[in-house]
């Protein structure tokens, strides 16, 4: 929990977040996994292939250097390389407009700003920022707000606040704090991986009409997010099943709630497998079903033997759904006009 609530909340100011270049489109965003060669270098070919496969599936945007992207395992040069290659892959397949959010969180304001500048130079469109937490006992809510505002003031990229208590020593930004941050013109969204639907609803209600975007942090809460006015999800599961994740959103928006609920159940079961197994299980599923991407960076390792079979078995229902949606989409594109 944060240490204290902000004393006052400043009035909302006019925000550049309403401009097309800053405002994120609603939908499913995919925090991509990182790809390595057997020599433990960045696999440029797999990075390119993966970005273009996801773009073809109709997702709203990509994220590099997220928790799924092994940012903690990458040096600064590798982080920039992954972002550059991903941006080039999108440009080459006609998706130059697609947002590319880059994880830029660090423990100091200075380094966070450096990462934002490097992300911009590498082709990123937005910066995803975790709060500093290593010296959590010294960080009041006011200091955390000051950190985000200082970064937002100088960053060449608009910011998306990342609220994810697990890697931040339990630090959980409350809705008052996030609404305070939303008043800054260069803070344009939030990803909530805290699973708090009430918090999400309060943030949505407090930012109506401003261009500020509120995203759920996992695919298993897609419908809950949409039901209270959220704008979509940033989901690691979509590395494996982007079309299935998209389909839940499409059906809900089309008013086909019963169908959306059924698909949400399949997606939620698949997401539970990903949550339990972590990013290595997502990479194992990519290797099994798409033929690339299975290698994590040490000291992490790929699941093997019975553990691998058990994890992949939990993805089977989701993958079947994904393949059926892909097949339906391909058939629709091949059907001659009436």
Describe the structure.
The chain is an alpha/beta fold. It has a domain at 26-241: Aldolase class I (TIM Barrel). It has helices at residues 44-56, 76-92, 109-121, 141-154, 175-182, 197-206, 222-227, 242-253, 257-277, 279-290, 305-334; strands spanning 27-31, 61-64, 100-103, 126-129, 159-163, 187-192, 213-216, 232-234. It has an 8-stranded parallel barrel with strand order 1-2-3-4-5-6-7-8, surrounded by 7 helices. Helix 8 runs antiparallel to helix 9 (257-277). The longest helix is centred in the C-terminal third of the chain and has 30 residues, at 305-334. The radius of gyration is 19 Å and the shape is globular. The relative contact order is 0.13.
Record keyword descriptors for this entry:
single chain, 338 residues, alpha/beta, TIM Barrel, disordered N terminus
Number of strands: 8
Look up the CATH topology of the domain at 26-241.
TIM Barrel
Taking the sheet with the most strands, its summary is: 8 strands, parallel, barrel
The second-level CATH architecture of the domain at 26-241 is Alpha-Beta Barrel
Mean pLDDT: 91
Widest sheet: strand ordering: 1-2-3-4-5-6-7-8
Given the C-alpha coordinates, what overall shape results?
globular
Order of helices and strands: EHEHEHEHEHEHEHEHHHH
Provide the CATH superfamily of the domain at 26-241: Aldolase class I
CATH class of the domain at 26-241: Alpha Beta
β-strand amount: 5-15%
Which stretches are low in confidence, meaning pLDDT under 50 for 5 or more residues running?
A: 1-20
Give the helix/strand class: alpha/beta
H/I helix tally: 11
Q: What would you report as the Rg, rounded to the nearest angstrom?
A: 19 Å
């Amino acid at each position: 929990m944060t240490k204290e609530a902000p004393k006052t909340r400043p009035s909302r100011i006019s925000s550049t977040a309403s401009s097309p270049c800053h405002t994120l489109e609603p939908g499913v965003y995919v925090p991509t996994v990182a790809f390595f060669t057997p020599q433990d270098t960045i696999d440029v070919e797999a990075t390119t292939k993966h970005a273009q496969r996801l773009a073809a599936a109709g997702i709203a945007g990509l994220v590099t250097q997220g928790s799924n992207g092994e940012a903690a395992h990458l040096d600064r040069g590798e982080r920039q390389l992954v972002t550059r290659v991903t941006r080039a892959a999108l440009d080459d397949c006609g998706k130059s407009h697609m947002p590319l959010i880059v994880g830029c969180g660090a423990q100091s304001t200075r380094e966070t700003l450096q990462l934002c500048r490097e992300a911009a130079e590498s082709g990123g469109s937005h910066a995803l920022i975790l709060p500093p937490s290593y010296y959590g006992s010294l960080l009041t809510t006011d200091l955390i707000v000051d950190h985000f505002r200082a970064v937002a003031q100088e960053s060449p990229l608009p910011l998306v606040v990342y609220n994810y208590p697990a890697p931040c020593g339990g630090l959980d930004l409350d809705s008052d704090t996030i609404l305070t941050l939303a008043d800054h013109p260069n803070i344009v969204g939030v990803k909530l991986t805290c699973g708090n639907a009430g918090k999400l609803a309060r943030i949505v209600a407090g930012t109506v009409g401003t261009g500020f975007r509120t995203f759920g942090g996992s695919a298993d809460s897609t419908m809950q997010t949409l039901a209270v006015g959220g704008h979509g999800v940033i989901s690691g599961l979509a590395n494996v099943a982007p079309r299935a994740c998209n389909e839940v959103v499409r059906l809900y928006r089309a008013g086909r709630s019963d169908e959306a609920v059924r698909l949400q159940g399949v997606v939620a079961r698949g997401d539970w497998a990903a949550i339990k197994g972590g990013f290595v299980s997502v990479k194992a599923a990519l290797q099994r079903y798409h033929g690339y991407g299975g290698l994590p960076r040490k000291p992490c390792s790929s699941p093997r033997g019975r553990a691998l079979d058990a994890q992949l078995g939990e993805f089977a229902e989701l993958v079947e759904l994904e393949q059926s949606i892909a097949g339906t989409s391909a058939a629709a594109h091949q059907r001659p006009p009436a």
